[in-house]
Amino acid sequence: MRIAVVSAPRNRGGIPEYVKALVRGMESMGHRVDVVDAWTEDGMRLPGYEYITVVAESISFFSGKIPEPLSRVLAAGSSLVGKKSAAFVKKGSFFLGRTLSNLMKAMEKEGMMVNWSDILLNPSHAEAMGKRIGA
Q1: Strands (E), the chain
Q2: pTM for this predicted structure
Q3: Could you report the per-residue pLDDT of 58-97, keeping only the tens digit for each?
Q4: Has residue 45 got a pLDDT over 90?
Q5: Contact at 8 Å (CB) between 80 and 112?
Q6: What distance in Å separates the CA atoms of residue 91 and residue 46, rounded to the nearest whole number?
Q7: Which fold does the domain 2-128 belong to in CATH?
């Protein structure tokens, strides 16, 4: 299966280790995975994937808001209506439930069907979650 992993870390600075671990888990199950960095890329190629996974962090330790570039990337990928997707939030703030809820609302606003959501505890947990996608 072709899977896009949209990474939206709190700050710019490349792909975090927990996202790389999630990708390793997916690839170990035979999926073709591409990472889309919300800070540097647009979402124009997202409609070409069968499954979209979005991994985000809250913008601060005491906030449940998601990074603004993530909303821009999801909005740019037109025709995401009906795409199966997963929403993941990295553990690291007080308002994890609110962050996950905001992420799922942003995805559903674009018409995506979120069929799985979870909180990633660490890279090894992220890799284990990656092995379950598409199974």
Answers
A1: 2-8, 32-37, 51-56, 84-90, 113-120
A2: 0.91
A3: 888 888 889 888 988 998 867 888 999 999 999 987 888 9
A4: no
A5: yes
A6: 25
A7: Rossmann fold (3.40.50)
